Amino acid sequence: MELSEVKQIVEQVFSDAGYEINNFTFFCPTSLSISLEKTANDLSIKFNTGLPSVQTKKLFIPITAQLQGISLGEDGGSIKLKYFPDIKFSYGQSEERFGSCSQNVNLDKIKSEINREFPDTERNTIAKLALKYTQEWASIASANGLCEDLKSRRQYRKDCEAFVKENILASRDVEAKSAVLTFILVYFVLPAVISWVVKKFLDNYFN
């Protein structure tokens, strides 16, 4: 790769359109702070402020995750995404890392419970969208396996809820029609519905 090509990629990463490769689009804010740490066997890159983000589209919904850091070792490394366990990789590894964890979860049962718990259109829409994002969170997070101890499960639930809320707020499928509705949506409706869906999914996943 020539330097001119590298320059073009860097410019795309910092543009509004981002840099796209293998169905992933990478973005960087115009200003960011990076720290490097070198040990005997590893090189760690940490993004302190202005986190880069990566977008992809699965289950017909756009997914955005923020990159907090990368660790590079002798044979492989790990990627640290906000709201996710560290994702390990080996150099030269090209296979799809993020599979489906739906085989562990009775999705039809959860969807039926959603329809009973949230019969109104607004909350039902939010709940079903939350279920899709929860599925994707679990698919990514389970790349290295999810610990089943209670402490880890509580943290998983907290991180998953934050990830789902962040993506739903950026989704066009959920729109508030007034400032008052926006306040109610963000601080009351969304957290309650998302918490219910994430708990149902993860309880089903682990049990």
Write a short abstract of this structure.
By secondary structure, the chain is α+β, with helices and mostly antiparallel strands.
Describe the structure.
With 207 residues, the protein is α+β, with helices and mostly antiparallel strands. The chain has two domains: 3-90, no CATH class; 102-206. Helix content is 44%, strand content 23%. It is built from five helices and eight strands; from the N terminus they run αββββββββαααα. It has helices at residues 3-13, 107-117, 121-141, 150-169, 179-206; strands spanning 19-21, 24-27, 33-38, 43-49, 53-58, 61-72, 76-81, 87-90. Strands 1, 2, 3, 4, 5, 6, 7 and 8 form an eight-stranded antiparallel beta sheet that branches. Helix 2 runs antiparallel to helix 3. The longest helix is centred in the last third of the chain and has 28 residues, at 179-206. The radius of gyration is 19 Å and the shape is globular. It starts with a helix and ends with a helix. The relative contact order is 0.11.
Largest sheet: 8 strands, antiparallel
What is the global morphology?
globular
**Strand-residue proportion:** 15-25%
- Domain count: the total is 2
Number of helices: 5
Q: Share of helix among residues? A: 40-55%
Mean pLDDT: 82
Structural class: alpha+beta
